[in-house]
Amino acid sequence: MGALIGFLGLAGLVVAVVLLVVRVFFKKGLGYKNIGVLAGVALTLFIVGLIITPSTKESFNAGREAGQQAVQQTQEPKKK
Predict the structure, then answer these.
(1) What is the DSSP letter of 30?
(2) Helices (H), 27-55
(3) Are the beta carbons of 42 and 12 closer than 8 angstroms?
(4) Furthest-apart CA pair in the chain: how many Å?
(5) What is the pTM of this model?
C-alpha cells in the first residue's frame, strides 16, 4: 500500500513539472498557485509512501519469523 502511495506521489510530481513547463513556455494551463498545490500534495504523498513502506530486510525477517512459527506449530504434538 505504501509503495502505491509513493508511486502516485512520484507520478504527481512528474505531472506538476510537466504542467509547470507548459505554463512557462506556452502560457496555457493551470495557474502557478494550482501547480504549486499539486506539487505539494504529490510531494507529501511521496514522502508518506516512503515512510510507511517497510524495508526489504524487515519484510524478509518478518516472513522468516512467521515461517518458523508455522513450522513450530505443525511440529508440536496435539494435546487431547
Answers:
(1) S
(2) 32-52
(3) yes
(4) 79
(5) 0.64
